[in-house]
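Handout, tutorial session.
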Amino acid sequence: MIKYLKKLGPGLLFAGAAIGVSHLVQSTRAGADFGMGLVWALLLIHIFKYPFFQYGPRYATATGESLLDGYKKLGKGVLTIYYLITFATMFTIQTAVTIVTAGLAYTLFGDFVSLEIWTVIILSICIVILVLGRYKLLDNLMKIIIILLTISTIVAVAMALSNNKEAVSLIQVLPENSLEIAFLIAFMGWMPAPLDVSIWQSLWAIEKQKNNKDFSPKFAVFDFNIGYFSTIVLGIGFVLLGSLIMYNSGETFSASAGDFSVQLIEMYTKSLGNWAYIVIGVAALTTMFSTTLTTLDASPRAMQKTSELLFNKTFKRGYLIWIAILISGTIAIYFFFLSEMKTLIMIATILSFLTAPFYAIANYILICSKHTPKAWRPSRFMHTISWLGILFLIGFSIWYLFSL
């Protein structure tokens, strides 16, 4: 068991990056506002995004290079588009996850320092871990965090179900007005994660191979499947918690990071009891901290690699420079959106959904091309799911744009 746990890596990093805002915030909000009515959207988006996420570690371990190297082989224009999209969205994404993490820390450890100071503290801790520990520490830390969150969420759901006196309605709903449609798109935008995380996956898979020569393409897919399946189970769990505790209660989640964090932890303690306040609070904080940490590692890692490929030049301190740029932009945006967490998350998640077709098409073309060994190109089934996924992502994006 321990032997296999040590071999696991990028799949759990994926889960750590995914199980954050999409689950703690968006899934609980979906349950609170729609009951179990949006489970169809959660399952569909997992099915249709699956191939494009899986192609990241599959391509990386089969070729020994990241998706970014593959993008360059498809044409410098593809890599340039990625560079521009990432630069335009990475600050908003980082701020969205950091603002929730700071809110949880503020709620758990008191208001002896402000939310702004908590943001600086959290980002500083992340920097120390990434600069001193690099990938290996990130890999080991994530295994503990994911196990802790999974156990605490399953227990909370079980307790909430045992305390529930009414039958849970499984009637599915399709949002109708523009606000509900906007939430649906936002919900699917980061469920289970933005599609550019597939690129992070490929970079992490390369790092894992450096430390573990047995990390083959077959095991990389297995590793990814474990992380991906956990995001489905926990996503349904968070929707169920929001539905059981807040649906039809007259309560709504606050747009303020601090107030939302209090409501989130209270949602758990209503199921488990007051004794669980610290345990659940720490689990939620570590979950969001893991997302903050993985995004702070991945975006600079990807931008450094992209810069080197675009300019045919090695930047020795490129990773550190991009971390500094990302943190500066995050703090600047944070001060403007401190009391508007809900708006910030909506912007970030909608942008992620609207850019998803680009990543889906690029990943699919690359995995089917001559640049991928024949043995690791998609099966007929994966071809079918890929085509359906691309049509789904494009169709929903058009539907959203016309509903504005």
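The second record follows below. Compare its token runs with those of the first.
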Amino acid sequence: MSDILPIRYLDYLPLWAIFLLSVVLLLAFSEVGFRVGKRWQSTDVAESSQTGAIMAASLGLLAFMLAFSFGMAGNRLDARKQAVLDEANAIGTTWLRSQLLPAPHDAQIETLLKRYVELRIEGAEAESLEELRLAVAESTEIHEQLWQHAVTLGKEFPRAVTLGLFIDSLNEVIDLHETRMTVARYRIPRSVWSALYFLAFAAITVVGVHAGLSGGRSWLVTVLLAMTLSMVLMLVIDIDRPGQTLFSVSQQSLVDLRRSMGEP
């Protein structure tokens, strides 16, 4: 399925599983750090202060990376939303201009555009990768059929202004298909995810070491920290996924277009 959308191992896991796995791993690293700190326990104030400074720096760097990653994922989510609106507008314009074309092309093109809108909605709401593949494949076929109509009309009416307007909007529809696919393919790089999880594990390990050096810790605070970090990571993963669970991209503009075309 990588020819349609890039799929990663975490994409096969539900969000709750990613959350629980992250919490367990973070707590495990915290425990390791705490036990190391207990073994190194010292009354040296300078050593304790140094560990505290490293902990603060690690958490600050982790917060920066989380904000950076969230921003990257958020920008892509906004781009996906804008692409849906742009595509709906382009299809609607092509639909209106097709009514100016001579018969029987006008009716045939309108039928193809209606089906195309259905496919765009079905592809966005697909529950499996195979459904998405089929929707994309049929959308590409409709592009070819629409363009064949444009070629035929261009040969018959090479100077028609209305045909030129139709071809311009049809080109935009085809281009926006690739735009939507490209925006869906662009995801947070694996190197960023590796650095983010490394920083999360390193930061909570240092927190555990500092607690061990201090001679005690609060399990409530440790668990809350692990859950908070896991929740933020889970949200970033969901936004970055092609098919979001919590942050779904609304297809309402395409639904409204379908209704304006006379579909139920």
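Points raised in discussion: The two ends are 32 Å apart (CA to CA).
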